[in-house]
Amino acid sequence: MSEKELSNNGDEMARELPPFMPNDPSSPNYELLDVVGHAIDALEEDIVEVTNATTPQNATSIDQLFELAKLVDVNPKSEDCIDNYRPRVLNRFSLMTGEGTISDLLESIALILDVNISALQYSEDLENGVVVIEFPQAALDSTNLDQDELREIFNETVFAGYRVDLTFRGTFTYITPEDYDDAGFSHDSELGYDGLDEFGEPNGNGGTYSGILN
């Protein structure tokens, strides 16, 4: 018989008992608080689930996302998984709430790709009616969409008479100095090199994120 899983909140409450009160997992005090803790854990999980279900960015199922998408009249396709469906829903919400500015366009694309807007580069070919959006290859790799699907979604966002062309950057990834200095930022040791060897060839790994270069 497997041991009963202890509650997070019950364990925390037990640890806060005064020193003279037994609080080890086998004590009556712990067992009592564990019952209360399980109820609090379940309530917190329900709150998170309900909160997620109210935003298209965090909805965890097609059904939850569809309920939100009814507001902007976007139905899932028969072959859609949530990763395919979510970008179309996010894009439509952006269209409904934006004013058609360049800033709105870039904010919508950044939201769909889940990247900082500073990672995007925008240019126009006015003569040919083309809007060029450049973004990191890693952003494409992290989605469940191919280039054609992204282009189709972004073309719904661009101004009338224009079309979107996409270009991609490699692993030379932009981050802000603030992100780099954030203790929670995970430095990817595969994104560069330490330097050059005696023959001028890259060696080691590590490197510097492009946001740090001047």
Description of the molecule:
With 214 residues, this protein is of the alpha+beta class. It folds into two domains: 8-53; 62-169, no CATH class. It has helices spanning 8-15, 28-53, 62-69, 82-97, 102-113, 137-141, 147-155, 177-181; strands at residues 121-125, 130-136, 163-169, 195-196, 202-203. Helix 3 (62-69) packs parallel to helix 4 and helix 4 packs antiparallel against helix 5 (102-113).
Give the strand order, joined by hyphens, for the main sheet: 1-2-3
Order of helices and strands: HHHHHEEHHEHEE
- Sheet having the most strands: 3 strands, mixed
The amount of helix comes to 40-55%
Proportion of residues in extended strands: 5-15%
Note the overall shape: elongated
> What is the β-strand count?
5
Structural class: alpha+beta
Poorly predicted runs: 209-214
Rounded mean pLDDT is 75
Radius of gyration equals 24 Å
Q: What is the straight-line distance between the termini?
A: 61 Å
Q: How many helices?
A: 8
The structural domain count equals 2
